[in-house]
Specification:
The chain is an alpha+beta fold. The chain contains 4 helices and 15 strands. Strand 11 and strand 12 form a beta hairpin.
Length: about 180
């Protein structure tokens, strides 16, 4: 829904608005609004593993990079919110200010919980292509032949020195191979 500033000045109840925040600072901007202005905010984040030179490392990033959601009375608080640390502006569409349906925020919150974090940890499956992130075989691609959940290991088939070799590797030292996305024609 969109409203003009005149319409918002007559609305007496808090609405959910989308705020533009400084990149990589979304959760800090939301925390500042909560602490300083007692504003209800929502800044969902994703937690995922990515290969690095040190091996697989967990990263946490904003689900909506550069944006957070806040519930407030526009007429009374919009100036203080726009001048808060980490906030660039309230999202507008020309002269109109966008407001969100509370059901959208509720649906998002169902998936993130109180910590506002969704962990993406794909399940390993037999036949899946993976990349080894640590150890002697670091950087090699392999195919999972057996999942050993009790040992938290997987058995993989990889090509080493020109011949197929089967090895057991801790599941924390491999990452699923991401297939390239098909581009639209």
């Amino acid at each position: 829904m969109t409203y003009s500033a005149a319409q918002l000045s007559q609305i007496d109840v808090p609405l959910w608005f989308c705020l533009k925040a400084q990149p990589k600072q979304e959760h800090l901007a939301a925390m500042g609004l909560r602490r300083q202005l007692q504003i209800e905010c929502y800044s969902p984040r994703l937690r995922f593993r990515k290969p690095t030179r040190r091996g697989a490392v967990w990263f946490v990033e904003s689900m909506f990079p550069g944006y957070i959601f806040a519930n407030f009375n526009y007429a009374e608080q919009h100036r203080r919110i726009q001048s808060s640390p980490g906030i660039q502006c309230i999202v507008r569409f020309g002269e109109l200010v966008g407001a969100l349906d509370p059901a959208i925020i509720a649906a998002l919150r169902e998936n993130t919980g109180d910590e506002e974090i969704v962990t993406i940890d794909p399940q390993l499956k037999v036949g899946q292509s993976v990349q080894i992130t640590e150890g002697a075989f670091q950087g090699l691609e392999a195919l999972i032949t057996q999942v050993l959940p009790a040992k938290e290991r997987v058995r993989v088939m990889l090509e080493f020195l020109g011949r197929p070799v089967e090895a057991e590797i801790p599941s924390g030292k491999i990452l699923p191979k991401i297939s390239p996305r098909l581009s639209a024609p």
